[in-house]
Amino acid sequence: MGNVAVVLDTEAIRLFARAARSDNPAYRLADRPVVPPTFLPADGSRVGERVETDHRFFGPPPRAGDQLTAIRAGAPGQPAVGAAESLTRYFDRTGGLVAESWAAAEAFAGEQVSPQAAALLATYATDWLGAEAIRRFRTRSVRPLPPGDVMSCSGRVTQSYVQDGESRVDVSLSGADAAGTVVVRAWATFAVTGDGTPDPR
User: Fold this and answer.
1) How would you label 152-178 residue by residue, b for 16+ Cβ within 10 Å and e otherwise?
2) E strands within 36-165?
3) How far apart are CA 155 and CA 8, in angstroms?
């Protein structure tokens, strides 16, 4: 993958949000829905053993209809990344960097890691703090989520601060399977309005 033109599709965003069990109006009802935190792939696909991911947004997330250029690290003229890593940066029509997605692949004793657990945890986080307010979403899969299993999520605010003229909070999140075993962890940053710190979930 070198430079690839990407037009964000409304229906693709809605289907992704539905698969992540999100009813958030910013994804499901808006005329130009924003992308969910884990929507933009690090390597041109959403298939594979993505044990660690890091999705960063340099402002509000892109919306349906936005025309982006995706440039993968390691392509000709771009910095290299490790063999087990992938990094793609997304630029808008003016050449401004709007998002980047990084992933590291690893196998769990031959079991494939599903991206579903991370997407479910992202749904929990954006339902809590706002789909348009996400600035970073970093995940670490601890173990595979058994097919058809129910995942319970929890989160807490770890710090609040001001960066790039925005009030922000960092949150720590985790998702556990039906037995109570943690299957995925995440660390996220959200822009917040007002002086109040969001309540823990």
Assistant:
1) ebebebeeeeeeeeebbbebebbbbbe
2) 50-57, 67-72, 85-91, 97-105, 134-141, 152-163
3) 29
- Closest Cα to residue 13, out of 111, 126, 110, 114? 126
CA atoms within 13 A on the CB side of 1: 19
Rounded Cα distance between 186 and 184, Å, is: 7
- Encode pLDDT of 76-131 as tens digits: 455 555 557 889 999 999 999 999 999 887 655 545 556 688 999 999 999 999 99
Going by pLDDT thresholds of 50, 70 and 90, the confidence category of residue 68 is very high
Residues in Cβ contact with 15 at an 8 Å cutoff, skipping those fewer than 6 apart: none
pTM given for the model: 0.86
User: How many alpha carbons lie under 13 Å from residue 53 in its C-beta half-sphere?
Assistant: 35
Residue 13, SS3?
helix
> Per-residue pLDDT averaged across 145-164, rounded?
90
Distance CA 199, CA 157 (A): 8
Residue in this structure with the two tokens 């960092």, named with its chain if needed: 170
Tell me, rounded to whole angstroms, the distance of Cα 182 from its chain centroid: 19
pLDDT in tens, 32-59: 999 999 999 876 444 445 588 999 999 9
Q: Give the helix ranges, DSSP H, for the chain.
A: 10-19, 25-28, 116-129
Q: Do strands 97-105 and 134-141 pair parallel, antiparallel, or not at all (unpaired)?
A: unpaired
